[in-house]
Amino acid sequence: LVYRNDNVRRWVGVIWDVGVFWPRAAHPLAPPSYAETAVPQIQTRARGLLFPNDPAAHAHPGHVLLAGHSQGSVILAAAILQMGEDVRRRIYLFSFGCQLTRLYGRVFPAHFGPARIHELSNALRVGDDPRWTNFHRRTDPIGWQVDAGQREIRVTDPTALRPNNGEVLDPPIRNHSGYPDADEYRAEREHVL
Question: What is the distance between the alpha carbons of residues 76 and 129, in angstroms, rounded to a whole number?
């Protein structure tokens, strides 16, 4: 049924993503948690990019832009909340199709409730400069606004109400996909870079 039905496959995928994010101690009969591997790998990669072994690189410290879609925004939030301040102050976060508020915030409030989301937003703020941008669409059934003090950008969907530029089909409704292709995303990325 999962193989033949896109709708069933999508919902089984969502349940699978949520279920295998948490450690086995929370549900011992589940497969190994990918968060136990992904979170430390992201932290190590970010630290390696920010603090390379080359001493000349420390003369011009850079920044890292982490971008997470859907479940990826949850993984990045978990990774950033566990990073040291020396790394966090040099991180920019883009989240899109973000499940942190309505899904994870409701189901797991101790880990991703309003207090933790505000903690994440404050950790990614340098002075008055918020370094977290969340992109959302009204047509996205899974990703929502966060409203924790970070930048919030609504992405237009569909991009037009009728065919244009020689197209014959109506513009697609992207829902939960294609955020990096949106004009709003590209403009914010250029601004951050």
Answer: 19
CA dihedral (117, 123, 38, 24) positive or negative = negative
> Which sign, positive or negative, has the C-alpha torsion 14, 183, 180, 132?
negative
The long-range contacts involving 107-110, CB below 8 angstroms and separated by at least 24 positions, are 107/18
* Stated pTM of the model: 0.83
pLDDT at 152: 95
Dist. CA 82–CA 105, nearest whole Å: 18
Q: Which two tokens stand for residue 17?
A: 């993503």
Put the strands of the sheet holding 64-69 in their side by side order. Answer: 64-69, 91-96, 132-136, 151-154
Contact 134, 91 (CB under 8 A): no
Residues 144 and 101: beta-carbon distance below 8 Å: yes
Q: How many helices (H) and strands (E) would you count in the chain?
A: 8, 6
Instruction: Write the CA distances from 99 to 82, 155, 176, integer angstroms.
Output: 19, 16, 11
For 114-153, write each residue's pLDDT tens digit: 999 999 999 999 888 899 999 999 999 888 899 888 899 9
d(CA 94, CA 186): 11
Structure tokens at 58: 């420390």
